[in-house]
Amino acid sequence: MYPTRWHASGAHRVRPVVACLLVLLLGLATVAAAAGPSPRVEAGFSSNFNLNHSGWTALSGTWEHFNDTVFGTKGVPGELASIARIGKFADFTFEARMKRVGCTYCANRLVVRSRIDLPSGFDFAPSFFFQYTIEDPGKDGMFSVFKIKADGTAVAVQGWTPTVAVNKYGWNTLKVEAVGSYYHFYINGTIVWEGARSGLSTGRVGISMYTDMTSTGDDFRVDWARLTVTTPLAAGFGLPAPAGAILPGGSVDRSPGA
Question: Which residues form the domain of 187?
Fold first, then answer.
């Protein structure tokens, strides 16, 4: 152990070492400050969108409040209109109540575990998309799950699949439970897909919609959105709801109904 007091005879030998350590620590602090603080994992949120969308940022499209109670957009022809929640989230339950009028085969989605620094041109990459379409009269609505890679490439986890869980003419509540690499996806309280997918453990969450170049009368509204911390999920929590076969065709933004 070194003595707790300096002796005058040894002070000239100890002080240069201390000075060097101080310079090193100051240098490290300068580098850390330049890099900026690492985003911390947030606990959760609840947004009712009543004249307020605090904590959300628009990435693309024009978003506004309607009737003082919902937040929405008319979309951007041929593009996405998206909002993202500020903050980083790890294990969670994320859900939102939304409604779409207009393009019947265009995707309406929740986005989870997106990158933190969101550059223009890549609204959410990498991330997972959980989405639905309302489809034409006489057809069931559809859902799909896509993994978006860092370069923006979309890979189908569950291709476009018909399901009676979609409320074609009203509001739909989409929910994602994510713990580690395991996911549950719900539409209006019905589990439509579950499984494990590795590669993304934390990130932003968001809400997004696509508008086709030829569609008219588009209107997308969000009534509320909330996120809570999730306890560990057990594999085999529940079987997906009965659904039709995955349909060929389509894309990450449009069902095969197009």
Answer: 45-229
